[in-house]
């Protein structure tokens, strides 16, 4: 089950910049339900934290 996620506002906000309201809504639904892994927006956000750790390591290697 997907609960509230603070990061949704950035996704929805960007979609609203380029799409009509209803299209932006359905874009967000498609993104969350079909593109992102189902566990990505779980209550613990463990997958999101894992991505941040990986990203930080990549940046540290590229820019020591």
Describe the structure.
With about 60 residues, the chain is an all-alpha fold. Helices cover about 65% and strands about 0% of the residues. The chain has three helices and no strands. The chain has helices at about 10-20, 20-35, 45-60. Helix 1 packs across helix 2. The mean pLDDT is about 85.
Helix-strand layout with pairing:
Layout: H1 8-18, H2 21-35, H3 46-62
Helix pairs in contact: 1-2
- Give a count of the beta strands, DSSP E runs of length 2 or more: 0
Label the structural class: mainly alpha
Specify the oligomeric state. single chain
Distance between the termini: 39 Å
Report helical residue fraction. Answer: 55-70%
Shape estimate: globular
Give descriptors for this structure.
single chain; 64 residues; 3 helices
Compact overview of the structure:
With 64 residues, the chain is mostly helical. Helix content is 67%, strand content 0%.
């Amino acid at each position: 089950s997907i609960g509230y996620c603070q990061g949704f506002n950035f996704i929805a906000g960007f979609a609203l910049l380029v799409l009509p309201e209803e299209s932006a809504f359905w874009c967000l639904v498609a993104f969350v339900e079909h593109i992102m892994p189902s566990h990505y927006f779980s209550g613990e956000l463990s997958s999101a934290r894992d991505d941040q750790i990986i990203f930080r390591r990549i940046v540290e290697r590229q820019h020591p």
